[in-house]
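Q: For a teaching handout, I want to show students what a protein-ligand complex looks like in token form. Below are the inputs, and the small molecule is uridine-5'-diphosphate-xylopyranose. Please produce the holo structure.
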Amino acid sequence: MKICCIGAGYVGGPTMAKIAQKCPDIPVTVVDINSTRINAWKSDELPVFEPGLLDAVKESRGRNLFFSTDVEAGIREADIIFMCLPTPTKTYGEGAGSAADLAYIEMSARQIAEVSHGEKIIVEKSTVPVRTADAIKRILDARKNGCRFQVLSNPEFLAEGTAMTDLENPDRVLIGGERTPDGQRAIDALASVYARWVPRERIITTNLWSSELSKLTANAFLAQRISSINAISALCEATGADVDEVANAIGKDSRIGPKFLRASVGFGGSCFQKDILNLVYLCDFFGLREVADYWRKVVEMNDYQKRRFSRRVVQTLFNTVNNKRIAVLGFAFKKDTNDTRESSAIYVCRDLLEERANLAIYDPEVEAGQIFHDLGQPERQPDGTPSKRISICSDPYEAARDAHAVLILTEWDDFKSGKLDYQRLYDGMMKPAFLFDGRNITNMDELRKIGFQASGIGKG
Ligand code: UDX
Ligand code: UDX
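A: Here is the structure, written as tokens, with uridine-5'-diphosphate-xylopyranose included.
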């Protein structure tokens, strides 16, 4: 058996590294049209920052894990082809703003049809709208060159920052396929790969559509919990309650459970918003307006939470941040990743730039160029001197120097009370020194003792 993965990104890279590590006898080739990315995968500077990833890659690279830009050869030689391609929200035409753009998936399916011979199993890993497998299959089957395809849905549930442990020890592996003898054979073949390290009872098989819909539903439920606790955080601020105490109290109810109840400046990442909008589009498409409205609210609440945070900063700083230096600690959408897709920091920073603040940004993993790109700002002014609006700093103390306020936007462990020297941070700042903890990782009492005018999320 040979495996090929199309798409060497946050999903394809770590997933294939784990499969190659666990199945040393199966050659795994990861292909991508982006040669810079592929070269990075061949080096020790991987394009994706993920704890434990480099070790896993090093263990298998050159043995049974290969990276290449030769997409056609990868496809031709493989028995199982994973599609780990982006499925961004459409920005144009019908469904703009909510439907998924399947252009990359379709292009890949056409390429697979074009160059394949014999039998192949195509695995959709990317999150896709329900019934995408059907579209892939129709494209593949339209090419009558005697090739036989089975399409499986095998959604990825790994979370960034914990990808390698999630892959090592998944709550479940979900495989959806056609309920036919050929479909069952394909399901069994893929299940046998995971069964090398995942207990059989955790490998769930369903029909194709249930599998596709389960992925959207799982992400929608997770995001909904965050929007729910964030909604309560606004009420806590109004009433004098503490959202962390509320979350702890309700989380002890075993029916609710303690996870995913951390109030924050809003959820980010490439999946939650996109998948809910996808769900909303599907519901609208099938005329289920009330269901669509219900899920749309989860995204609206998240937008509200981000906006509420930046408004609060401006209001607290005497209603103006014009020309004030604001230190931003953390730009990634969560800790332990260099991924900034849909990061709340982007929205907060944009709001503050609109209010004419000057931003001093520090993140331990995100590259400067990425930050400028996300904020739509040039790194240099027309005369070649560095941007005056945004400076990227090499540590938190530099960012906070002469700043009117510090905003914590990512929950990096290094920003926690006890790790960062908040006294030193305070000493370098303008007074009064404001601190807004968008992740509730600091000890407010200690900060106030130092002299900070500090506030968190949902701390009334
Ligand atoms: C993920 C998931 O796979 C998807 O379900 C989710 O909806 C979005 O993000 P991810 O791995 O995080 O994908 O995306 P990304 O890191 O952007 O990687 C995708 C890769 O595909 C890129 O390296 C890109 O160069 C490559 N690509 C894209 C191709 O090789 N061919 C194409 O035609 C398009
Ligand atoms: C998510 C799903 O968890 C994963 O199963 C799926 O495969 C992809 O989408 P990911 O986006 O990588 O994973 O990270 P996740 O840990 O889910 O966090 C998403 C966002 O929610 C982050 O911005 C995080 O900071 C935020 N979050 C998470 C909260 O604000 N509060 C919480 O309690 C948990």
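A: Two things your students might notice: DSSP finds 17 helices and 14 strands in the chain. The mean pLDDT is 95.
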